[in-house]
């Protein structure tokens, strides 16, 4: 389904700000699986998602999605297969356009956009039903500008938009990190519902150990641009938030050890 | 009175310029300076073809096409070659100055006996007939011109309104509103921007073509400062309709253009030196851009001093 082969990406190569964000990531995701990605700050988890989405082209390695080699495809071309929700609730919607217009845009994701009416009455009533099914009471506000909604409402709508045409791959990039706890719960509830109903293949980055432990059927932990752990099946189901915290603690200790070791080597040889 | 009718007609014609600027400035959020060149290009192409004996409608359509090409050039420079949008516009505008001289073969091209859209409109009435409103007299031919131009602008505005409600039009609006979002929904933003600039500049060139036919000559200098006129009209229009809804924005731009032209006519009548016109226009746009923000800050400060007393600890929040 999604094949990631040895991808690497270095930002600002050859400058003092050089960041080796991805250092050879291998990952194969089967259709219908729900993969959680966790990692420390700067571990490359969001970079991995952006590499798949096409926000930038990778330096080396190959990406295959749905049988297509998409390594050199630009972002907008990959959109025909991929639905996305961003960390910032303002990124996923066009603020000065109405709810209905935003949904109409999503209803044409990755397809040719011609001179047909974007909001024919049948399209609009379809969209109204989809919004009603979310249970947020937004179905009567379809003609309001999205900019007038709260972050949680906007994120819920972005989620609906990402899944409006069933995507082959759903990318969720810390999509509840910027929300208050109540909105975050709501968005997570909708996320689970959509993924289960449409059996969406999902790659979700999260900062929440609670979400990481309770959602998904596979968990990947990234450290310094590489995959350190990959828990699947029964092993994933047994994981608790405490287990994950313990893993992070291990990484932290290893990092400290590395630093002192580097210091020692520096003293000896420089 | 005929001065007023003349200004009104000019305002109407230049409302096409305002509609073009609306597309680039407000819908695409692209500050496109090509306008100064493309309005003169539209005028130059229309005048040259009219002198060559073309049908006025065909000549006007050709002017639109030329404008679309100019907009495409700016779009390609800005999106494919990643040149800053302002600079891309300036480059094309500068190049167009030479292009316009080439098209016309000289810097000024008068239309003498040529048939134009304006003369076609005038033929609906005899040159002597007058309409009188109480003590004002208006030549009926002038009214015919206003009617013809109004009709044309009505058709253009209605077509634009319809377009911005199609799937393609919606995608164009989204490209100006949230680039990342629309890219994630599969739209090539570079292509969409180029297409929008072509549309915008074809409207501007249409304004140039009509302007030339109305004033009876084309001049290579006729574009100077036109982009600021466009900004002024769009900004006035927005404050008139007080909304960002697409239909109201279109109506506002037309109204803004007419109102602005009338204000200028009145100012000139009161003794404004025509040489100062561009300076006054620029100051006006500056004020229109800065005042709303300054007013908001002012109101906040006033509220700080005169508002109800607040508990200690909330001050300054």
List keywords for this structure.
heterodimer, A: 270 residues, alpha/beta, 6-stranded mixed sheet, 40% helix, B: 317 residues, mainly alpha, 73% helix, globular, disordered C terminus
Task: List strands and helices in order, with pairings.
The complex is a heterodimer of chains A (270) and B (317).
Chain A: E1 2-11, E2 19-29, E3 34-39, H1 45-53, E4 60-65, E5 68-69, H2 75-78, E6 82-85, H3 99-106, H4 121-134, H5 151-164, E7 169-173, H6 181-198, E8 202-205, H7 209-214, E9 218-223, E10 226-232, H8 233-238, H9 241-269
Parallel strand pairs in A: 3-8, 3-9, 6-7, 7-8
Antiparallel strand pairs in A: 1-2, 1-4, 4-5, 9-10
Helix pairs in contact in A: 3-5, 5-6
Chain B: H1 2-27, H2 35-51, H3 56-79, H4 85-104, E1 108-110, H5 117-122, E2 130-133, E3 136-139, H6 140-163, H7 167-177, H8 179-184, H9 189-215, E4 217-219, H10 226-241, H11 246-269, H12 277-306
Antiparallel strand pairs in B: 1-4, 2-3
Short account of what is shown:
The complex is a heterodimer of chains A (270) and B (317). Chain A is an alpha/beta fold. Chain A is built from 9 helices and 10 strands.
Please, could you describe this protein's structure?
- The complex is a heterodimer of chains A (270) and B (317).
- In chain A, the strands form two sheets. Chain A has a six-stranded mixed β-sheet with strand order 6-7-8-3-9-10, with helices on both faces.
- With 270 residues, chain A is of the alpha/beta class.
- Chain A is built from nine helices and ten strands.
- In chain A, helix 3 runs parallel beside helix 5 (151-164).
- In chain B, helix 2 (35-51) packs parallel to helix 4 (85-104), helix 2 crosses helix 9 and helix 10 (226-241) packs across helix 11 (246-269).
- A two-stranded antiparallel ribbon of chain B has the order 1-4. Chain B has a two-stranded antiparallel sheet with strand order 2-3.
- Helices cover 73% and strands 4% of the residues of chain B.
- Chain B is mainly α and 317 residues long.
- The longest helix of chain B has 30 residues, at 277-306.
- Classes of the chains: A alpha/beta (270), B mainly alpha (317).
- Chain A binds chain B through residues 53, 74-77, 79-80, 82, 84, 86, 90-97, 101-102, 104-106, 108-111, 113-119, 145, 161, and chain B through 163, 165-171, 173-174, 177-178, 180-189, 244.
